[in-house]
Amino acid sequence: MNAQGEPVDVVELLQAASLLVPEARAGAGDLTVSDVWEYLRDDAWEVAVGMLEELADAPPLAADRWRELALAAEQLCLPRSAAWCRWRGGEARHGVVRAELTLAPAAESRRRTSLPGAGVLRPMWGIGNRAPDGGPAFDVAALWVEHLPHLEPGGTATVRLAPLVPSHWRRLRPGQVITLHEDRTAGGTAVVLDVRDLRDPPAP
After folding, report:
1. Cβ of 7: how many Cβ atoms within 10 Å?
2. How far is residue 79 from each of residues 17, 46, 49, 161, measured CA to CA in Å?
3. Domains plus CATH for the chain?
4. Which of 6, 106, 153, 175 shows the greatest Cβ crowding within 10 Å of its Cβ?
């Protein structure tokens, strides 16, 4: 069902999204929109959704198209794909922060288990901001681990961050080191890779 409670035509949604991805950007051996259509014709929808997620990176899709892909993934019972498409829709609205995160080993951190990768964790981050008393101010941002379902203590992976207040993060630059906190101690360090188009949501 869509937001209006109407049935969703999964094939129609996938077709509409795929039509926005230009064939011209594909090189030798690259996946193309034609490949997606082949899978759609063969009813291999899960493969088609995954391909569209990758193809949608350049040029970026608008938030409403990511929402369509999320609806399609939900209809196909692909919860991680749906969550990823909703995440990317949020990035289309509020901007992108990517970083290379290394978690502290289990012996040096409160975290003894793996960190979930699909955007459910909203840790605090030390990004250099200060409280009125001059002490460190921590900023909340949800976390998505790219290409992994979770990240083990001591492990390293590229992550995407969704700040609660994007404008607090605008001064970050590639190469800057920030810290992850699940309590007052640092649970990991991250090197900023990319900061783009950060916009706060409109005031209610």
Report:
1. 8
2. 18, 11, 12, 20
3. 10-93 (no CATH), 95-196 (2.40.30.10)
4. 153
* DSSP letter, residue 109: S
Q: How many angstroms separate the CA atoms of 116 and 113, rounded?
A: 9
**Burial of 114 (C-beta count, 10 Å sphere; 0-12/13-18/19+):** middle
Using the 8-state DSSP alphabet, how is residue 82 labeled? H
Tokens 């906190």, located at residue: 181
| pLDDT per residue as tens digits for the range 35-54 | 777 777 777 777 777 777 76
Owner of token pair 């981050």: 125
pLDDT digit string, tens, across residues 74-86 = 887 888 888 998 9
Nearest to 71 by CA among 29, 26, 24, 17: 17
Q: Which tokens sit at 149? A: 């379902």
- CA 80-86-90 angle, 5° bins: 140
